[in-house]
Amino acid sequence: MSRLAVLIVAAGKGERTGLNLPKQYEKVAGKPMLRRTVEAFGSVGNRFIQVVIGPGQEALAAEALAGLDLPSPVRGGATRQESVRLGLEALAASFDENGAPDYVLIHDAARPFVSRQIIEAVTAALEAGARAALPMLAVADTLRRKEDARWSIVSRDGLFRAQTPQGFVFADILAAHRAHAATPVTDDMALAELADIRVVHVEGDERNFKLTTREDFSMANAILSAGETRTAMGYDAHRFTDGDHVWLCGIKVPHDHGLLGHSDADAGLHALTDAILGCIAAGDIGQHFPPTDERWKGASSDRFLAHAASLVADKGGVIVHCDVTLICERPKIGPHRQAMRARIAEILGLGIDRVSVKATTTEGMGYTGRREGLAAQAVATVRLAP
Question: In whole numbers, what is the pLDDT of the chain averaged over residues?
């Protein structure tokens, strides 16, 4: 199996951002940008990740990377080119007697939105025999060059925007850096070309932009603050039994029958609990509150719903909206609808405008039509933190 290393270059001062810290340590949606970038690579298989930092940034790096299983950062040089070379030398020294890594991906810490697809595409190109691979995007905007007082159009044909990670056969790029250390270049692909290494192009990604200005950070925060939105469904049914009331959506509703169940048989809250659990892929209500467990015999179902909500909160998520549909011929839901909405909103800590309760019948068909029992289905929407 090939040995792949990742070199993340985080040695700059980031002065163009106008922010308080070097930009790689500024927080993006509550997390240092450097950490986000490292985590993007750590989520894609087993990779040896080496970070290069600027002189005097040790404390900032230690705080940003706390808890991650990484080797100590390497101190970079006065230029990006020198920092990369020092990082490559550190990688060569880090590996055991079996030799240096086969391939290396060199990535800017200021590109925290690098995707799994780009990382895998660059890696696949190297493993397929390329000596160097570069993600690029074709230029789509109209380009103009100012000449005196006039603006001439520059043809976009053959023009591309280069991104990182730039991937290489490790021995090749290390040799190129050593041989051309005195030749200033803007990126590692320029060194590859100086060393006559053929570059293969893979498709880049618009989201893999480099954060350089204060406006870039605002855009990054906007992207991440949206988080991930998930929607899931839940369903439950209970048969009627002797009794004089039913519990539905947390409200005691008078009726000429009760509902049969291990807990209070509140089908509305059970369906909604399952929908919320589904949004975070946390199983179903039976896994958390088994009907064989005597602790839950006759239990009030608001405890189940509150538990599901707490699991969402533990993941840094919020419940955005929920919708419950009760399916029965009797009891009539309309007189109790507002109280049901208010109770669900209270349990979940939501505004009542984010809770919907509806009712329908099956026109006399099936077990609900024959008044043997009732059913409920629910849909929940959850927004998870990035």
Answer: 91
